[in-house]
Amino acid sequence: MPIYEYKCSACGQKIELMQKMGSKAPKKCPVCGANDTLKKLISHSSFELKGSGWYVTDYKNNSKLNSNNESNKGEQKDAGKNAVNH
User: Fold this and answer.
1) What's the whole-number average pLDDT of the chain?
2) How, if at all, do strands 38-40 and 14-18 pair?
3) Which of 8, 19, 40, 81 is the Cys-Cys partner for 29 at CB 3.0 to 4.6 Å?
4) Residue ranges per structural domain of the chain
């Protein structure tokens, strides 16, 4: 579930709440108790992709890719030798 950030217009306190994406904003400030004063803030996400495996170049190992291509070429040549012409 995403974490949403709200600010109370009465007391100025910022709060973070874990809510479902379709949930409505809370009606009451948990700090001062004022009703209908919380406004949703737009904040930066802390989600970050780290490590290997997140880019196309990380998925492929060129040596494996080249060896697979070479073995496929060899199989195609062998298949051609065993073909029977009618």
Assistant:
1) 75
2) unpaired
3) 8
4) 3-40
- Specify the pLDDT at position 5: 92
Residue 63: strand, helix, or coil: helix
- d(CA 9, CA 38) in angstroms, rounded, equals 6
CA dihedral 13, 34, 9, 16 (to 10 degrees): 40
For 28, phi then psi, to 5°, come to -120, 135
Structure tokens at 48: 């970050």
The DSSP secondary-structure symbol of 82 reads T
Number of residues assigned to the chain: 86
* Total-model pTM: 0.50
